[in-house]
Specification:
Elements lengths: L2 H5 L4 H5 L10 H10 L8 E7 L19 E7 L7 E5 L10 E7 L4 E7 L6 E6 L50 H4 L9 H25 L3 E3 L1 H9 L4 E4 L13 E3 L8 H6 L10 E3 H10 L3 E3 L5 E3 L8 E4 L1 H13 L4 H8 L10 H4 L8 E5 L2 E2 L1 H13 L7 H9 L6 H20 L2 H19 L21 E4 L5 E4 L7
Antiparallel strand pairs: 1-2, 2-3, 3-4, 4-5, 5-6, 7-14, 8-13, 9-10, 11-12, 14-15, 16-17
């Protein structure tokens, strides 16, 4: 980049360092330069965090060579309440060979800028900004293979935060005795995953989403409505969730609660005003343990080592991503979408909250443009009209007909009607999951969804997902409204 291009970058890394000719080779140099910086862009408040797929595998002489993939995160801000700069790196703060990646908020331009230090040098690469994550030519490329929607990524976003150092499962025992994670003061006061979730990940995602939607409402019309609607109809990315139970602690006499986000998009439907079931179905511990033995669940590090059993917290599965839900939530709040339209769309194939090809098929009805109005926009009405018009010529089993059926509910009754569907469905699920065969079908469904996730850039390291002896030719599976599981034709991801 030339000097004029660098001058257009208004994030703290560019303003405080790069524009003054400072190009750190190591994390230690980067932290020192930020500590010394002054002025309105200064980011003096620092927090550190630790994550890693092997963070719950205790270090011993026998496991010393396991690739635990421990990664350090450093957030900098003007306060702990708002992250302006986020560094991802390894524990060796003085090494110029360790990867050093920075995501920095540019308030003037309303984007995160992405940077990478070339390993072994003082050269830095500007890899693009949040808008590049959305443009067809750069979507899914470079850093946007993982940062699919242009913001901070925290795969294991919810408690109990599998793979993170947290209040639920510390990473202390996984750290080698001579690791800088034990000896370097930089890492001494690392924070728990719940702090990263609430004060870093969620706030960064909310911030970028606000800026993104503000840029839409500042125009005279909505260009590329499909880019907005894909967060409602498709699965652009996911978060990884588990039950609240540690796998090793489950015995035949215990139960584990199946998170409702495995069954439907709980949080977004609640935000849209739909009364959702409050009781999670219980899985008998004996059924869970039998599934581990039946399919030989294990963890593998990709280098020949393996450990029998599930992930540290039991029953890992992909759930709807905060990134998608936050776009819909803010779009409704700003009037770009109506709550009724969003809820009716979500309730199409609702037992499959992620990777639903039926719901994804509705994106083809997105208009090419939509008008902004005094109350928001006409995008909901335009899209609903296109879907219901198409439904008239399609069969009863089409997703268009399913949407039209709910869209035709009276405006005073649609919330109760959708809530009734959810309650009937959960009653059916509760009966199915209580049996060994029923829970077994959900084990296969979770594996099917994990395999859909496994083809994405977020599946970086072998220890992330459990391995099983479930046949490689397992078809793509989907949940029915009666709580049973069916197979679907194999399809490509709908990102």
């Amino acid at each position: 980049m030339n000097d004029s291009e660098v001058a257009r970058l208004r994030d703290p890394l560019a303003v405080l360092l790069f524009q003054h000719g400072t190009f750190p080779a190591t994390l230690r140099e980067l932290v020192a330069a930020l500590d010394a910086a002054e002025g309105p862009q200064a980011v003096p408040v620092q927090m550190t965090f630790l994550a890693g797929e092997g963070s719950q595998l205790p270090w011993t002489e026998q496991t010393r060579d396991v690739a635990r993939q421990l990664r350090c995160l450093v957030s900098r801000g003007r306060s702990e309440e708002q992250t302006e700069l986020l560094v991802t790196t390894g524990p060796e703060a003085d090494s110029p060979a360790v990867f050093l990646q920075v995501l920095a908020w540019d308030d003037d331009n309303g984007v995160f800028n992405y940077y990478l230090r070339v390993e072994g040098t003082t050269a830095w690469i500007y890899a693009g900004d949040s808008h590049d994550a959305l443009e067809p030519a750069t979507r899914g490329q470079g850093p946007f293979a993982a940062h699919v929607n242009g913001s901070v990524v925290m795969r294991e976003l919810r408690e109990p935060w599998n793979n993170w150092h947290s209040s639920r499962a510390g990473a202390h025992d996984a750290i080698p005795p001579d690791s800088p994670l034990r000896t370097d003061p930089l890492w001494r006061d690392r924070q728990s995953a719940d702090v990263f979730e609430k004060q870093v990940a969620k706030r960064c995602i909310e911030r970028w989403t606000r800026a993104r939607l503000r840029a839409i409402t500042d125009r005279s019309s909505i260009e590329h409505p499909d880019r907005l609607l894909r967060h409602l109809f498709q699965t652009t990315t996911v978060n990884l969730r588990t039950t609240d139970s540690e796998s090793a602690a489950i015995d035949d006499s215990s139960d584990l609660a199946l998170p409702l986000t495995f069954l439907f998009n709980l949080e977004l439907l609640e935000d849209l005003g739909i009364e959702t079931p409050g009781q999670a179905p219980l899985v008998h511990g004996g059924h869970y343990r039998a599934s581990l033995a039946r399919y030989r669940f294990r963890l593998e590090d990709g280098q020949g080592a393996q450990w029998p059993g599930d992930t540290h917290f039991a029953f890992l599965f992909p759930e709807p991503a905060l990134e998608d839900n936050e776009v819909v939530r803010q779009a409704v709040r700003s009037g770009l979408l109506t709550a009724r339209f969003a809820a009716c769309a979500l309730m199409v194939d609702f037992p499959n909250p992620v990777y639903s090809k039926r719901r994804a098929a509705l994106l083809r009805h997105a208009p090419t443009v939509a008008a902004l109005t005094e109350s928001g926009s006409d995008l909901s009405e335009r899209t609903a009209e296109r879907i219901t018009t198409a439904a008239a010529a399609l069969g009863e089993e089409s997703p268009e007909r399913e949407f039209a059926e709910m869209w035709q509910l009276h405006k005073d009754e649609w919330k109760a009607g959708l809530s009734e569907r959810l309650n009937s469905y959960l009653d059916a699920v509760t009966e199915v999951v209580a049996t060994d065969d029923g829970f077994d079908s959900y084990v296969l469904l979770a594996e099917s969804r994990r395999r859909s996730f496994a083809g994405t850039a977020l599946n970086e390291f072998p220890l992330l997902l459990p391995r099983t002896d479930i046949p490689a030719n397992l078809p793509v599976l989907a949940m029915r409204r009666d709580g049973t599981v069916m197979s679907e034709p194999v399809q490509q991801g709908d990102r």
